[in-house]
Design a protein that fits this description.
Radius of gyration: 20 Å
CATH class: Alpha Beta
Strand order of the largest sheet: 1-2-3
CATH architecture: Roll
Distance between the termini: 71 Å
Helix content: 25-40%
Structural class: alpha+beta
Shape: elongated
CATH topology: Ubiquitin-like (UB roll)
Number of helices: 2
Order of helices and strands: HEEEH
Length: 87
């Protein structure tokens, strides 16, 4: 066994050093990064979206990458309706 492998930190079976943030809505330190399907009130569904979610109040925060996916998905119906005779 190499010395670098022997001295490497051990990873637990649970997630390694999950970054936990303070939720801006409820103020509890329970905001974690998750990957799951997000359903918006307007019917838009984004599968497997990586974002932050508060374990306490369920507030969701979206970083730039998540916002790009949301914006791209929300534009699909608009692009498909161009030229449908609507002004």
């Amino acid at each position: 066994m190499s010395s670098s492998r022997r001295n490497a930190p051990r990873m637990s079976k649970s997630r390694s050093k999950e970054k936990i943030l303070t939720c801006p809505t409820c103020g509890k330190r329970t905001m974690v990064r998750v990957r799951k399907t997000v359903r918006f009130d307007d019917g838009l569904v984004i599968p497997r979206l990586l974002h932050y979610e508060c374990r306490s109040c369920r507030e969701q925060l979206f970083d730039d990458h998540a916002m790009t996916r949301i914006e791209e998905a929300s534009l699909v119906p608009i692009e498909n309706s161009i030229g449908d005779g609507m002004p």
